[in-house]
Design brief:
Layout: E1 8-9, E2 17-28, E3 31-41, E4 44-49, E5 53-58, E6 62-68, E7 78-83, H1 88-94, H2 101-109, E8 114-120, H3 126-138, H4 143-166, H5 175-181, H6 184-218, H7 229-241
Antiparallel strand pairs: 1-5, 2-3, 2-8, 3-4, 4-5, 6-7, 7-8
Helix pairs in contact: 6-7
Length: 242
């Protein structure tokens, strides 16, 4: 009785039903709720037991739906639906566990999640069930996602506008413009750095050159090798191994 109290009596949905699947077992958190009919309607997903009681899931609360064919995970192929909501069925099941403090901590952080499995007696219907759900879900874009995106873009834009007013943003130049804006001292520093860079590059080149000459001597047949110095350096290691 009490554990099933979220099941309500209501008439089967009449409008916008994209798919109706009779003889479908509903399973919540591993416990069977019996056999009934699954209605994939545009407004919500409803399941009604043959006795006329059942439940509905709102599309915005459905975070995931998939066709599950992995028989090691669950012994029958089914439509798997994850919902961000709490159902009493599970609370009673978890009751005895809920004594440690850990449980309370995790409840605060974690969104409630319920896992439903809808197991049709006719497995060939699963693709149609899945695509009907995709169509209906597309009619209900998640308001939370949209709001948070818009807020975020809005805040970002406001911050930038605010900074422009304050004149906090440093001015950026292209490379050429940047050079023309350098002070004389800065220009000298830049040239000194470029000189040091050129020097270190040429000294690397010379070292590589020395290794090139060594490696030519090392070839037994004395054949001349005409390769870029750095590449010759790499060849040296490879050839010596052989």
């Amino acid at each position: 009785g009490g554990a099933m109290s979220f099941l309500k009596r209501f008439p089967p949905p009449a409008e916008g039903v994209r798919h109706r699947q009779p003889d479908t077992e509903a399973v919540l958190a591993g416990r069977s709720l019996g056999a009934g009919t699954l209605y994939i309607a545009e407004s919500r997903l409803s399941w009604l037991e043959n006795s006329g009681v059942g439940f509905s899931l709102e599309y915005p609360t459905i975070s995931l739906h998939a066709v599950s064919r992995d028989l090691s995970a669950y012994p029958w192929e089914h439509l798997y639906v994850m919902v961000n909501a709490k159902f009493e069925e599970e609370e009673t099941k978890e009751g005895p566990v809920a004594e440690g403090e850990d449980e309370e901590d995790s409840d605060d952080d974690v969104e409630p999640i319920a896992e439903f499995r809808f197991v049709p007696s006719d497995k060939s219907a699963l693709e149609a069930m899945f695509s009907a759900m995709c169509e209906c879900q597309a009619l209900h874009p998640d308001p939370d996602d949209e709001d948070s995106d818009n807020d975020y873009e809005g805040e970002e834009y406001d911050v930038e506008a605010h900074e422009l007013e304050q004149g906090d943003i440093p001015t950026f130049y292209t490379y050429e413009e940047g050079l023309s804006h350098l002070t004389a001292e800065g220009q000298a520093t830049l040239e000194r750095l470029e000189g040091m860079l050129a020097q270190s590059v040429s000294s690397q080149y010379n070292m590589a050159g020395v290794r090139t000459e060594d490696s030519i001597r090392e070839f037994e047949d004395g054949m001349e090798v005409d390769v870029a110095p750095v590449v010759a350096g790499q060849f040296e290691d490879a050839e010596v191994d052989h």
